[in-house]
Write a structure and sequence with these properties.
Strand content of chain A: 25-35%
Shape of chain A: globular
Mean pLDDT of chain B: 79
Number of strands of chain A: 12
CATH architecture of chain A: 3-Layer(aba) Sandwich
Largest sheet of chain B: 11 strands, mixed
Helix content of chain A: 25-40%
Radius of gyration of chain B: 22 Å
Radius of gyration of chain A: 18 Å
Low-confidence stretches of chain A: none
Largest sheet of chain A: 6 strands, mixed
Structural class of chain A: alpha/beta
Oligomer: heterodimer
Shape of chain B: globular
Number of domains of chain A: 1
Order of helices and strands of chain A: EEEHEEHEEHHEHEHEHEEH
Number of strands of chain B: 23
Bound molecules: adenosine-5'-triphosphate, magnesium ion
Structural class of chain B: alpha/beta
Amino acid sequence: MLVIRNLHARVDDKPILKGINLEIQAGEVHAIMGPNGSGKSTLSSVLAGRDEYEVTDGEVIYQGQNLLELEPEERAWAGIFLSFQYPVEIPGVKNIYLLKAAVNAVREHRGQPELKAGEFLKLVREKLKIMQMDEAFLHRNVNEGFSGGEKKRNEILQMQLLEPTLALLDETDSGLDVDALKIVGEGINRMRDPSRSVLLVTHYQRLLDIVKPDYVHVLADGEIKLSGDFTLAERLEREGYEGIEAA
Amino acid sequence: MSNQDIDQLVDQDYKYGFVTDIESDTLPPGLNEDVIREISKRKGEPEWLLEWRLEAYHKWLQMTPPDWAHLEYPAIDFQTMSYFSAPKNKDDAPKSLDEVDPALIETYNKLGIPLEEQKMLAGVAVDAVFDSVSVVTTFKEKLHEAGVVFCPLSEAVHSHPELVKEYLGSIVPQNDNYFAALNSAVFSDGSFVYIPKGVTCPMELSTYFRINQQNTGQFERTLIIAEDSSYVSYLEGCTAPQRDENQLHAAVVELVAMDDAEIKYSTVQNWFAGDDEGKGGIYNFVTKRGECRGDRSKISWTQLETGSAITWKYPSCVLKGADSVGEFYSVAVAGKKQQADTGTKMIHIGPRTRSTIISKGISTARGQNAYRGLVKVLPGATDARNFTQCDSLLIGDQCGAHTFPYVEAAEPSANLEHEATTSKVSDDQLFYLRTRGMSEEDALNMVVNGFCKDVFQKLPMEFAVEAEALLGITLEGAVG
Ligand SMILES: Nc1ncnc2c1ncn2[C@@H]1O[C@H](COP(=O)(O)OP(=O)(O)OP(=O)(O)O)[C@@H](O)[C@H]1O
Ligand SMILES: [Mg+2]
């Protein structure tokens, strides 16, 4: 599904990713943990195609193609989805308008027919129910005035609608209350499928308890320092990054 | 996104750049009394109108062009322009579309105005001004039944001389400003609308203007009269062919609303903006004013300004009647080297008069966008209220936005509010939308349309869609 080899990236001449190696097979869920500022969001942004970051070395192969030469929208069409750590507000643009445009843009490039207003509404209502979100969110401007937790739920709502092949979830659990965490966690689980992979950035074990990743990686100072299974997260929770690094 | 990309995003060739080949009889360049006499003669005008034109001409000679706007352009040589041009077959005006010169129909089709369809579509009557003389008018009968008069001003001069005589220049006086004076002297044609008492105009009235003669300044003049308790919605839309020399356009629009009458005037303006250096674009100096003469009357101006090299335009409302309402909703785009100095004036005279101003300025590439607004409350306009909101959106960092809000309140009970914001289309927004599968262009469009939403909502439904599309075309090519 995804192979990252020796990935180096920098912003304004400042190296941030310093040789990332990671392989994700279809159907796997990988969690990435690591101290603040270690490069987790940078990694997900680079994978989603943000051009602010300059890739200086290494390669990323996604489903057999060179991912780095694709535009962000081409990556979306190819099934990559990024849930933002800080979802962006778009004043004056109704959420439902964006959702419909996004779904149809992706469908078009997958050779599926465009969803008509009625069909789309039916679909989005189904997903809202899963996310336990009020229909009023459809008619509010994208992320404008949404609470932190509401923004994150809205991201997962988009993921449900876009049905990505590779979901990059950057701290989707941050800012969620206990109930919302469960809803989001279960929302992610529903998407699990032998053909679908997830790369999940988080600081807390709580979400991992629900989602149960196949692998856990520790990213520190732009490199993956340690990889393991689910128990690594538990160890981190107990010992912190310092304890691990010292070991 | 780099600046270069952003520049590209705003660069694009003018889609409607073409010149239709229709024989026209055009007066040689130059302006003097004889030319004015000739214009009046060719249009078969009555003596009083010729006198009126000459009076305006002499006032104009005494005036100087305004220099206070945030605009830079070379002095205009009025002697190099021609002041009259008309399609040749003017006399045998067509009774139906079949009789219309096919080249004209072709032009409309290129502009995306299939007249055939429009007959059925949404009850829109089109009085198309091709160059200076109106040649196609549809839906006349239906309007006639309702008692609505909708015809070229040149025709109204003969069919309704008393109305034209009474109102022409009564809202925008001949010597109101330099360009209004010029227009009064040489005005070519435009629309005349009369809505009788108690009548709600059964359809949107729409006029497509088009400048088509090389070097022909175009001076439309429109007059709309809404009698007591009447309603009319009017849309004006413009595009123009590509050309080399700057073209002057100085229109005058006069509206008057009596007791409980409402006039909604919407404009979609898409004249050639010039090339990247601003060469060849239209100079657009417009005087638009509406007078809420009657109590509880209402006039609203809604405009989308995407074209012209230079725009100088301040649709205004004179709120005379008690409880009358003035509104101004505007989206102005300045890209390439375009300069826009636009805004509104709300003059509160009657008690409890209210006005709302919502102005959205979008600047891209090297465009300069200025909002200039005046809210004036005269003594006696007790409890007058105004709300002004002025938002600027910058795309790239070579463009500029300027706001000049003036307030003159002579009435202590007036309640005036002003809000202003300036924002940039952020890389974050564009990236966010692109990760959702939108192309860079679509992403930009979405952000910009969101910014303009408050204004587009005020456009008649069928034109709101057109406005969004036009904005899309204007910003197209921005992403490489
Ligand atoms: N556009 C930028 N300009 C300058 N520095 C940047 C930029 N983007 C990221 N950085 C820097 O790169 C480093 C990694 O940032 P990143 O957002 O990837 O960290 P993170 O691991 O996601 O942290 P957190 O856990 O706090 O979300 C930080 O030091 C950050 O300040
Ligand atoms: Mg982060």
